Structures are given as structure tokens and as C-alpha cells.
Amino acid sequence: MWGMIATWTMAVEGITEGSHILKNHGDAGDAIEIAIKAVEDFEYYKSVGYGGLPNEDMEVELDAAYMDGDTLDIGAVAAIKDFANPISIARRLSKEKVNNVLVAQGAEKFAHQEGFERKNMLTDRAKIHYRNRVKAVKEQDIKPYSGHDTVGMVCLDSHGKMTAATSTSGLFMKRKGRIGDSPIVGSGFYVDSQVGGASATGLGEDLMKGCISYEIVRLMKEGMHPQDACEKAVNELDIKLKERRGQAGDLSVVAMNYQGEWGVATNIEGFSFAVVKENEEPTVYLTKNMNGKCVHEVASQEWLDNYMKTRMAPLVEK
Ligand code: SD4
Q1: pLDDT for residue 117
Q2: Residue 284 falls within a domain, yes or no?
Q3: Which one of 149, 203, 253 would you pick to mutate in the ligand 1 pocket, going by the greatest count of ligand atoms within 8 A of its CB?
Q4: For residue 40, what is the domain's CATH number?
Q5: Which domain range does residue 7 map to?
Q6: Does residue 317 lie within any of the structural domains?
Q7: Residue 203 covered by a domain
Q8: Quick one: pLDDT at residue 137?
Q9: With a threshold of 0.85, does the pTM exceed it?
Q10: Nearest CA to ligand 1 atom 10
Q11: Distance 26 CA to ligand 1 centre (A)
Q12: What pLDDT does 144 receive?
């Protein structure tokens, strides 16, 4: 059995590419890297890699992470600027004995020395998003941070190896140097090939309060199906945050176990995700939390066409 699961519709082309590797009995590390790179390289996906949304200083600072579920190797970069594929740098770091997580200039120095491709990741389109948001924040009652989608994936190959990975520009308009859950092991991602893996998207500050990806893997280790583990982790954290702090941010998670069974949960309207498996074509689903149970529905072609149309529509400066 092999398979991949990923947050958001934008991951579907990536997991399709990854599935070609898995089909040919390739490696879960190679499949997940190629899949995340596809999302990073597509400029119309505005919260990952090239075209990512800038911070409050109009700089694109990126976070990414990679984990190998066989060896438990971890690599991550945070607040890195001007490199095309943060995921590849994170994967490369996972092979080091120490210094596996590097931030900002330290990460950039390493990437430069290792010969990774430099690229100005700030696109004209992202600049328009930035200027429009600056205006909107002044004129309306809009949260500066809303609008962000991290790609997070879990992968199982036909040899039983599992990997997890994330890549993001983080929260739109974040403070310079801010990092979210995505490069933090246990929060944005976790995987153990003997159990399964999970990855998260949403408000990093809140996802981290529950170490949510680790929690899901822990629940799966206790014998829970990935769907039950995801629902329990999201619902309990959502309730706890509301009880203790009066509110909970966006929390969405995907998970797959070592048998290729998967699960998804969210506390928001309109969370989408993509799955591919040995006997299942790449499919985008939409999910809804109905009183604690998450119900998944295959996205219609019309919905998918509209998604792409809105992503690629010309952007006007307001
Ligand atoms: C972060 N969790 O930086 C990321 C953002 C995200 O959907 O996932 N948005 O907090």
C-alpha cells in the first residue's frame, strides 16, 4: 500500500506528481519533496513558496520542514528569504547529525553554501495583495492576518516508509521573524513509520498550544483510526482554547497511518484537502465539522474550476 494526504486543494497537482514516484516503488522522501516543490513553484498559490504572502515589511519569509518516519530525522528552516525551495533545504538539513533546524540568515548561509537555487520570492501579485491589505486594514474592520494556507503532507511508500513535510509563507502580514507551527516538530508535522503521520494548517500560535500533530500520532499509536484521532485532537484543543482563552483560531489537520488509512478534521468552514492512494486517483475533498464529526465530500469539477479561476484571476490594486 502507498498513499499521500495533503492540506488544501492546491496540493493536488503536487501529490499527483508524488504518486508517480510511489507507483514505481519509489521513496516517500522523494515523493513528498517533489510534491511540496510543485506547490512552492506555482506562483498563484499565494501562501507557499514563490508568490507567497509577505510579512509586515513586505518581505517573503518562508518556513518549511521535513521528517523521515523511519529514522525520525528532522530538518527545518524558518524565516528564510530568497530561496526557491525551502522544502529541499529542510530535507537536506534532516541528514545532518546536528544543526537540523536553522533560521533566517543562518538558514540562508547554509542554503547558499550547499548551492540551493536563489530566487526573489516576492512577486508583483504578492505586492498588490500586500498594498490592498494595508489599505483594507486601515479602512475596514479586517484582521491583518487572515488569508493563509500552509501545505502539509504525509506520505507512505510501498516499502512502508513514511514522511511528513510542510511549507508556508506563514501568516500574511506577520511580524518580521515570526514563525508558526509549520517548522516546529510535533505541531506542524510528525511522523513515525510504525504508527503514522499528521500535519496541520491554521493559526500556528494555537496549533502549537496542543502540539497537535504529535497528539494525533500518539492517539493513532493507542490504536485509534486516523479519522477518530484527528477529530479528537481538533475538538479537544478547540474546546480547551475556548474555555481557557475565550476563543480558538483555525485548526485543520490531515493524517495517515502505516496502513494507508487516513483522517481529516477541522474547526472551520471550507477546509479542503487532497488524497491519493494505490487504488484511489488523486481526489480533492471538502470537509465540514458537524457537531464534532467531520464529514468529507468530493469536490465537484465546477468547484475545482472555480477555485483555479479565482486563484488566477487578474488582481487589481484597490
Ligand atoms: C502558520 N500554520 O504560520 C501556519 C499558517 C497556515 O493555513 O497554516 N495557514 O501559523
Answers
A1: 95
A2: yes
A3: 203
A4: 3.60.20.30
A5: 3-312
A6: no
A7: yes
A8: 84
A9: yes
A10: 204
A11: 29
A12: 61
Question: With a cut of 70, which residues of the chain have pLDDT below it?
Answer: 141-144, 147-148
In a domain, 318, yes or no: no
Pocket residues: Cβ below 6 A from ligand 1: 148-150, 168, 170-171, 180-182, 201-204
Residues assigned a catalytic role: 150
Select from 143, 182, 208, 266 the residue to mutate for testing ligand 1; criterion: most ligand atoms less than 8 Å from CB.
182
**Among positive and negative, which fits the CA dihedral 51, 55, 60, 62?**
negative
* Ligand 1 atom with minimal separation from the 204 CA: 10
Q: How far is the CA of 198 from the centre of ligand 1 (A)?
A: 15
Domain count, the chain: 1
Atom of ligand 1 nearest to the CA of 188: 2
Q: Give residue 1 CA to ligand 1 midpoint distance, Å.
A: 30
